[in-house]
Amino acid sequence: MNSVVVITAVGQDRPGIVAALAKAMFDLGGNLDDATMTRLHSAFATMVSASLPSDVSVDDCRAALTPVAREMGLTVTVQEVSGEGGEETPPDHLLTVYGADKAGIVYEVTARLAQRGVNITDMDTRLTGAPGSPIYVMVLEVACGDADLAAEIESLRKNLGVDITVQSLDAEAL
Amino acid sequence: MPAFPVILYPDPRLKMACESVGVVDDAVRQLIQDLLDTMDAGPPRTVGIAAPQIGAMTRVAIVDIGRNPKHEGLGHGYLALVNPTIVAHTGEQIGREGCLSLPDYTANIRRWERITVEALDPNGAPVRIESEGFEAVVLQHEIDHLDGILFLDRVANVKTDLFQRRKK
Hints:
By secondary structure, chain A is an alpha+beta fold. Chain A contains 4 helices and 8 strands; from the N terminus they run E-H-E-E-H-E-E-H-E-E-H-E.
């Protein structure tokens, strides 16, 4: 039985982190699937899903990554996930929320979405703008299904004083 | 003439639609010159600017992709457009865009691949421009400004970027 795991590794950024993790997984016979890796402040954060060969357990995977964690100064977690699901609600909309930075933008927006049963499949936020006038930008890929967000969006716009654009994600071959 | 300061988001003027120009007169030509002076003073490789970015809520924009050496000799060179409208478009393209009014931020934006723009030139004569590729992107970006639309409103996917991350 092949296990699917999600590995997270976070530590002070330095060259070679991804290579070290990838080598350990390669030596284990694991197959890397999807990965999101980015620098956050001075840390480097990686999240990767991987399929393990049938003779490799989740604990074997943890053991294989322990020396890498020590060597690279990383906090590593390995979590087994069900190979099922996740595909039932494909993302169907892209939301862009942006405005003058203030506390609570992420909370307000995501809480409204959660109340409506909207699933966030991907999210990227950035603090930008000129010094003294910070701008917060959120881009969210969401699965709305039948939820009608128009009223929520309008009230978020008013309450937060942000601009929000909703685009339908048409699967187009480009 | 000195350059004008470029207004930055969240200035609400960047989200407002501009007024059409009735008559292309000396005041409009002066506005075009102001835009040119501002573009000259702006960051190198600035390839377009729209009137609302200097606080003039008028449907005027200039484009010159040749200011980026990468695109030199392509497209139509310097274009000064009054009341520009996209009258036809085909295809799609996605490319990275930034904006003078949202510094240090870029995102992948979905645009038409080829467009036909009708406008008036600085003498008030009608012009029709067929444009494609990068120049078409810049034209769409500037015409969007005249409608109060920023590139963030046309983000194509979640991945966005900063030239330089700022710390809170």
